[in-house]
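Schema walk-through. Below, the input block comes first and the output block second. Nothing else is stored per chain. Lengths vary across the set, and this one has 291 residues.
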Amino acid sequence: MDQIEAGTVHTLTVARKIETGYVLTNGKREILMHVNEAEEDLDVNQEVDVFLYLDKKGQLIATTVIPEILKGTYGWAKVAESVKQLGVFVDIGIQKEILVSKDDLPLLEGVWPQPGDELFVTLITDKKGRLLAKPVTEDIIEQERDLAKKTLRNEPISGRVYRSTKVGSFIITEEGFRGFIHHTERKDEPRLGQWVEGRIIEVKDDGTLNVSMRPLKQESISDDAEVILSYLASRGGVMPFTDKSSPDDIRDTFNLSKAAFKRALGRLLKAGKIEQREGQTFLKREGEAKK
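--- output ---
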């Protein structure tokens, strides 16, 4: 790249040494490199490959640390800090952490990445020349992803969330597959950048995956039954929900589908832990429950 700007790599020449480091040049412009940005001692007239970025004062400076993530290249960057109303800062390997703007994050701050999460990003510059990290787009994922085989159905899978929407979460798996977790296939919405585990419920014709974070039905019934029992206990042992309740009310209250709710109710009824009457469900006292 010929243009001298943040986020680019250049081969520059050491013009002179100064007390705080080095002055580098391309023959037209001089760039400062602090001594702690050089991985070894340099000599005058020595050529050196450097990465450019703006320091806190807005001055363009150089470092011999060349990050894998550059303008036009994508990579995983670990989240270092989340700042309310601003965005998150990621570590790309240089001394300065790079901002991912809130404009490129979910509207709900509760699913923003937290320190330790990782984002798949590239570098861009804003109108003022400041370096920003921008999360991957679907176009890039489509170019880079691998195709999953139909035989993977029901297999366990893990990956990292690269996109979060109201309808569900999109992940890139360890194997490089693109997966989608519909909001009905998770109990809690994972954060952007979070590592998640699930199982493959469908391999689509285009080689992408539909993934569920819910346990298998037998395990799910037990978990869902515990949710209902906890809810009853918190409401004095009675709730205005039965197997006749509306799917929307069930979803809003328990984050369960009506089918899952009915299966769990059926298990609890069979075990004698609850009873239904007059349009309500009651928690039986310990002595009333079947042994």
